[in-house]
Write a structure and sequence with these properties.
The complex is a heterodimer of chains A (about 280) and B (about 240).
Chain A lengths: L3 H5 L9 H35 L11 H13 L2 H33 L1 H15 L7 H8 L3 H25 L3 H9 L4 H38 L5 H10 L3 H29 L10
Helix pairs in contact in A: 3-11, 4-5, 4-7, 4-9, 4-10, 6-7, 7-9, 8-9, 9-10, 9-11, 10-11
Chain B lengths: L2 E10 L2 E11 L4 E5 L6 H9 L6 E6 L2 E2 L7 E4 L11 H5 L7 H14 L15 H13 L5 E5 L7 H18 L2 E6 L2 H7 L2 E6 L4 E7 L11 H14 L5
Parallel strand pairs in B: 3-8, 3-9, 6-7, 7-8
Antiparallel strand pairs in B: 1-2, 1-4, 4-5, 9-10
Helix pairs in contact in B: 3-4, 6-7
Classes of the chains: A mainly alpha (about 280), B alpha/beta (about 240).
Family (chain A): Belongs to the binding-protein-dependent transport system permease family.
Subcellular location (chain A): Cell membrane
Membrane topology (chain A): Multi-pass membrane protein
Chain lengths: ~280, ~240
């Protein structure tokens, strides 16, 4: 995050009148999309052609159209929504629980030096355990039902959010806090009016990487044992020797994961529009 | 409001930065604290503001000793220190309480005062350095402070903007007759603005000399009278010894 002095002392720039720049920026956005799509499209076409020419054996790498057919088939018999829904549900609940714990603990550790000395070493120690190592223990404790999966995901989400909340609060510019003090704000008002908005960028970064990890952990959790969900489709595809099911599941993971990240990105852009970011050339 | 600074000393980590600094400011007076860098000007100002309480000695505001931030004191920092997530209007009204409409109405008046009417909806990232500092001035004035503390408020600005804002400060002072303590290392700024200049020198900083400027306002930049004061100050600072 940039320092506020840099934010405020800049020259007059940014936000040009919308009317004139609108068409141009739309054109450049379309151009970006086209530029980014060239390689994937070429690859997919090449993949399709090579599969049809039977260069790739279809029992190992089926053609893209076959994968799309599989997804369409799942959608047609209605099981697609069940699988996507339950996976989304697990990620969402785990994400909410992990974020809630991270925000509470992270705020306490961020605000109180004593709490930092008390909690932080232990949390850092837990962090150094690869989170997937917990899987067997959680299954032992909670069985292979929903609780163990959700816990798994929550653990994964917790750490990036926690770290970013703490560093966000620690990184609030002392100079801005002084401004608040000059207006006689008490601790609570200082937190609400200065510290929270100032640490918001870091918090949102944490939430986005937390969500990414959530998707990673839902795969792990569903691979361990599930009777539904996208991760279950992966296992099913492996056991029934149908790579098209595996690839269909992977593609669905990508689409749904990207969509949730995109939603968060919109929230981020909306709430952080005041940030003075360098624009890439 | 009158200010009485009695024997302020301040050490950081056992090293004394200012030693026994005393001076007074009468109601409506503009007092300049002038000195080379590192002589503790800002330290004295922070003690007066109540942001720093670790000093020895006493700060009396209207005859009453105070060690906390008083609502009647305003502070303009060297940097604008605007909240980047608030727009100009929200920044200006930051120190006000009450309903948004009534706050905005007062805010518009002060934005007019500093020549920023119509910029209410801009965000700090869209402001030039001079505009941002104007917003900071409006933000400090809006609570109608009776004592205004300025910590090298114009030092980061270009020469022209600096002159404009100095004149703006004088206009505001004419209207509100605030007691002002101005920390600066710019001798011309001090002679142009101040009724009294307190020169801090040495390390730890101490009061070297007090110079009273009875030149009537409006003063002319570069006039002989101001040039004479400048010579006095330069002699008093004794820069050859550094």
């Amino acid at each position: 995050m940039k320092k506020s002095s840099e934010l405020t002392a800049g020259e007059l720039h940014g936000t040009k009148p919308q009317g004139r720049g609108g068409l141009k920026s739309q054109k450049s956005r379309v151009q970006t999309v086209i530029l980014g799509s060239i390689l994937p499209i070429i690859l997919i076409i090449a993949w399709e052609l090579l599969s049809r020419a039977e260069v790739f054996p279809s029992y190992q790498l089926p053609a893209p159209t076959v994968i799309l057919d599989t997804i369409a088939g799942l959608a047609a018999d209605g099981s697609l929504w069940g699988h996507v829904g339950i996976t989304l549900y697990r990620v969402l609940i785990g994400f909410l629980i992990g974020t809630a714990f991270a925000v509470i603990l992270g705020s306490i550790v961020g605000f109180y030096k004593k709490a930092e000395q008390l909690f932080d070493p232990m949390i850092q120690a837990f962090r150094s355990i690869p989170s997937l190592a917990w899987v067997p223990l959680f299954i032992l404790w909670m069985g292979i039902g929903e609780p163990s999966k959700v816990t798994m995901i929550a653990v994964g989400v917790f750490f990036p959010v926690y770290l970013n909340v703490v560093s966000g609060i620690n990184g609030v510019d002392r100079k801005l806090i002084e401004v608040g003090k000059m207006y006689g704000l008490n601790t609570f008002e200082l937190i609400r009016r200065v510290i929270l908005p100032a640490s918001l960028p870091s918090f949102l970064t944490g939430i986005r990487s937390g969500l990414g990890l959530g998707w990673m952990f839902v795969v792990a959790a569903e691979l361990m044992g599930a009777s539904s969900g996208l991760g279950y489709l992966l296992v099913l595809g492996q056991n029934t020797l149908s790579p098209e099911t595996i690839l269909a599941s992977i593609i669905l993971f990508a689409v749904v994961g990207k969509s949730t990240d995109w939603l968060l990105k919109i929230v981020e852009q909306k709430s952080l529009h005041w940030q003075d970011n360098a624009v890439k050339a | 409001m009158s200010l009485n600074i009695n024997n302020i000393s301040r050490s950081f980590n056992g090293k004394e930065v200012v030693k026994n600094v005393s001076f007074e400011a009468d109601p409506g007076e503009i007092v300049g604290l002038l000195g080379t860098s590192g002589c503790g000007k800002s330290t004295v100002l922070r003690a007066i503001s109540g942001l720093d309480t670790g000093y020895r000695g006493e700060v009396e505001i209207n005859g009453k000793a105070s060690r906390k931030v008083e609502a009647s004191t305003g502070f303009i920092f060297q940097e604008p220190r605007l909240m980047p997530w608030l727009n100009v209007m929200e920044n200006v009204t930051f120190g006000l309480k009450g309903k948004k409409e009534s706050k905005d109405e007062i805010g518009r008046k002060y934005l007019r005062d500093v020549g920023l009417a119509g910029s209410e909806h801009l965000y700090p990232k869209e402001l030039s350095g001079g505009m941002a500092q104007r917003v900071a001035i409006a933000r400090a004035l809006i609570t109608s402070p009776e004592v205004l503390l300025l910590d090298e408020p114009f030092s980061a600005l270009d020469a022209f903007t600096k002159m404009q804002l100095q004149d703006l400060l004088l206009e505001i002072w004419e209207e509100y007759r605030t007691t002002i303590v101005l920390v600066t290392h710019d001798i011309e700024e001090a002679t142009y603005l101040c009724d009294k200049i307190v020169i801090l020198k040495d390390r730890p900083g101490r009061v070297g000399q007090e110079i009273i400027l009875d030149e009537p306002r409006p003063r002319r930049r570069g006039s002989n009278a101001l040039a004479n004061y400048k010579t006095d100050i330069l002699n008093s600072l004794d820069l050859s010894r550094v």
